[in-house]
Amino acid sequence: MITLNVNGETHRVDVPPDMPLLWVLRDVVGLNGTKFGCGIAQCGACTVHLDGKPVRSCILPVASVGARAVTTVEAVGQSPSGKKIQEAWLALEVVQCGYCQSGQVMSAAALLARNPNPSDADIDAAMAGNICRCGTYSRIRAAIKQASQA
Amino acid sequence: MDKPTYARVDGATLSPSTRRRFLQGGALLIAFAAMGRRKAWAAGEEPSLRMLGAGDADKDGAAFQGFAPGGFIRIGRDNSITLIVPSVEMGQGIYTGEAMLIAEELEVGLDQVQVVPAPPNEELYQQPLLKSQSTGGSTSIRGAWVPLRQAGAAARQMLIGAAAAQWGVDPAECAAQRAIITHRPTGRTATYGEVVDGASRLPVPKDPPLKDPRDFKLIGRSVRRVETPSKVNGTAVFGIDVQVPGMKVATVTACPVFGGKVASVDDRAARAVPGVRDVVRIDNAVAVVGDHFWAARKGLEALDITWDYGPNAGTSSNGIWADLKARSETGQPVQARRDGDVDGAMKAASKRVEAVYQLPFLAHATMEPINTTVHVRPDACEIWVGTQVPTAAQGLAAKEAGLPVEKVILHNHLLGGGFGRRLEADSIGQAVAIAKQVDYPVKIIWTREEDIRRDIFRPAYYDRIAAGLGPDGLPTVWTDRVTGGSVMGHYFPGGLEQGKLDDDAVEGAKETPYRFPAVQVDWVRADPPVPITWWRGVGPTHNVFVVESFMDELAHAAGKDPVDYRRALLQHNPRSLAVLNLAVEKAGWGNPLPGGSGRGVSLHDSFGSHVAVVIEAAVDPAGLIGLKRIVAAIDCGLAINPDSVKAQLEGGILFGLSAALYSGITFAGGRVEQSNFHDYRNLRINETPPIEVHVVQSAEGPGGVGETGTVSAAPALGNAIFAATGKRLRSLPFRREELRSQGSGRDVLSKGPAGREPADNDLTRLARTGE
Amino acid sequence: MKRWGLWFLGLVAVIVVAAAAFFFLPHRLDAVASPGPAAGPDLIARGEYVAQAADCAACHSVPGGKPFAGGLPFTLGFGTIYAPNITPDKETGIGTWSDAEFVRAMRHGVGKAGEDLYPAFPYAAYALMSDEDILAVKAYLSSLTPVRAQAPANDLKFPFNQRYLMRAWKLLFLPGERMTPDPSHPPEWNRGAYLVEALGHCGECHTPRNALFALDQERKFAGAEAAGWKAYNISSDKQTGIGDWTDRQLTDYLSKGHAEGRGSASGSMAEVVDHSLRHLTPEDIRAMVAYLRTVPPQTSDLAAAINPNPPAAKAPSPYAPPPDENTRETVGLKLFQGACASCHGWNGEGLQHSHAGLAGSQSVNDPKGTNALNVILHGARMDTPDGEVFMPGFAAGYTDVEIAAVTNYVLGHFGGKQAAVSPADVAAARR
Question: pTM of this prediction?
């Protein structure tokens, strides 16, 4: 049994220790907002926060989460930076198919939390690991800037 | 900005019992089919939605009470308004666009409605342009433009009629706004919910008058998309997110060689993996079912499968290219078009230019990997999936399950990208074949590797194009020979007869924006030994790259500016000329650029729209391409939701640029050599330049949009690279290695790092040492 | 004069006959004793452990293939040798070998038919093994399921295809006797010496070779290059070897393939950890460390010494590069942003898995970038106590220029080294 703190709730899960957090969230805890994109940490669709820091849950062994608080897209709006990011995403109509956007929102919220006024270069460094096939990148950039002004 | 309001969206919000009621409630249907046949509509019949496959009896025992004047609209006594949109949402904003068409005439706000996708039913939801219930080819708005507005108008007329009858007043004195009917002289009001019973008893008007576009409140304005909130807070339900009670999760590996089969499987190790429940073998694949995806994947890795690779074990990209070249030169072409004295004009030309262009196989790589959830029961098959072709999927599933089609219940969901991949139902058929061997619901998810390797690919093409120029440098004759596989032959049941033209193979080549005195376009069919299908931008993505690159070659051969050269050929085509002029004006065409930089333009008329794109790119001495700026202009007629049009252009262009720079599926030993985003690469945010999209104000009927940006991308970039370097790249993906400056370090350095300060030391050094 | 001539002719004849005898007389097949008290499952279990410690699987399996079924190619300057099938298949494996034949192969490099084996098979190390261990390995291999798989024939140029020449090589370089404990050292050290020298055959990669492809024992463990990878200096030199590694770092690296502040094993060393070292008991790992500590220091490339304060150390967090690097936005940095930073982190700490931590890694401190380049091109994988860790290879998706740029960025950022990996180096390393 592994104990996880996800979005403020405690979950006890009976899973293999090397099972990636992504699949524990999706298939055991039942939170499907976090997405499977590549399974090799190349696309960022699975990004969640551990103690507010972004990680790629598709390759994060659940046993290594420990006592750190897991936050997923379902709850990121409860943090000030997550709320600002979600609002800016809506205001600029960033989303197209939306499948990568959970990860984009999580990466952007983590960026804004540690850097309230990110430059273009800061946005590149924080967001280049998140792939969007629909090509929403220019709106993502604009939305992060708008969120930083909010 | 107005305070945003949103419609509610199906998926998460529609409970199963509501869904059942929705499916079972008696309904009068105003659907696409009605426009063609008008039978149901005219007769005022209420074709039961039971035939859609709602197999279970309604456990609540309650049928829908309210107003359902057709396949697109339901209004409850509680004022709940549901719009059933015929097209699937895969990012293009069509839930919103189609809801806007209905809502505009129904006089409701998008914040007052719930939008749900149509269940499979060809009778009701056949798309008039595609002649099937499908979403693709940038046809949705064009197909829905009249019928959906008519549906809204008819319903509004009935609701007003019911209120007027209740009040005993002239309907002409009543008006509706935001789902409230007002009798203007008295100011009396009624909500739609209050009059649904009366409205239900009224006949459906035949040809309800439509609004004058000047009175549009929604259409033509940028509105917030209805499903976006769910996509930023994690509540959106894509096919992969479906959870069904008792469900297990599986993953699958098919034979790595197309056409190969399973010879034998040793599954002892797989079954020993904790959490693995079953190992299921089908003709060409093996699936492992587990309590969760991780168990299934570990189990799959533990399988020891012996394959019978079949006849394609020797397939290689080199062989395919050699075959395409040989067939291009010696094969029997199917003529698409021949106008004027082609041979004579070619002989008389004062200059002849010819070139060969090559385009690779492409995977779709939707962000949401292929997945299907299926529960096969003895009497029914229930499917949860995101598909562009719900009825085709239903039919294939019925065949696979051995059940009548009405016993297959298909729940369609949001698609995490389509791009043509989900026009195919192969994975749904496979999923049913797997699921019918187990007695519980199973969600089958392909790994990204499986998704790339078992994709159905955009075909490779080998195109030979030539032109003769007159004394003024303009083309007097134009010939374009396309060689490649037939997508329509693959796609349509029964295939395409040999000798028949595949319109897709020559779309964008047969008709160009330009006028030539003599023109010949033909196609040599060369079906590859791997499956092929549609890919975003379809025919034009392929052909416009060739046409627009070659147009630049001709301008260069004639010593003319590429924009001026095109203008000279567009005097008959004012809409294309206008978007060209708009794009180049906004891009500052002709303004000086730093060394090593260049602008390229592309122009096309596709999907009923006219699009010009200017890309500014810088090429380093090391051969690295930097995208600097993108300017697009589109005339798509009346833009329903202009911000969505812009978004589609932005995204479509980047999708095309990813492919132009990085994408190509290759084969060796019958196997796909790419597997995931590390080797099937995608453009990233730090490579993305500023993009401007200018939407031409137009009163013309709406054109298609979703594909158009992708079509524009590769030729505009190729032309920009030529402008920057003088090198013409005729193969996709662009062979960036060819752009490396050769020669001494001095030569390389003299060019300078394009468009940048020479502070980029690693590049200059690379260029110097890179022989 | 005549007598002198006859004497000379006679001498030549004797030499010719002696040489012929040396090169062509059949090898002796000495009888061997039974493997000792262990038998049955115990013997097999011991054999499995010894086979792991001797890392037989690394060479006698192809990636993704059946273990011990052979077929792995060894591309040498003068041709290709293929590892044979050592499963107990009677036709294509070693199913018909006697104990004596097996011991002779391990100790003398002689095949079943009496042919001389090439020293790609490290019998110069295995010659130091005890008969008991060798026979335990045989018992273990015999317990496996036979796999029918004929390894491809070797493809060697003349004169390297003349097996008898190996006799001369063996005469020069093959140890005459098995290892005996050195009473001046404690048993732990002696066990370590046996594991490192005989079973682990560490020197085969980590010791430079002389002109005759034999190990230059004067430069023991000074580091060498093999199959395009660098095997680093593992002598006790403090600057260029492992002299200043802590015991914890050494045991972690050997048993898990990663040590905090020392990076992760990759390439052949990752395979060694995967197939061999991670299966060893903590006592045996400690014994190896005890022995390695006493290997005399050898100084190797000072330019590759670990830089304790590279730019990565100035990164504010794993999530952002140092501001001055970020504003420069070089190609290498931009590629790293997209494809690398999600796992490696900007400060070298390693995200998701500690194995992705690059801080203090030898590979990113070597300005030639040999191993870094190989890993970037071809990827890496390893099984660890926390599950599989892996990195995809980026060869197919990125050009030579891009790979060179990101490699140089990595060496500069994490190693503080002015690296000059060129596109031509990348092209060569693609193989």
Answer: 0.92
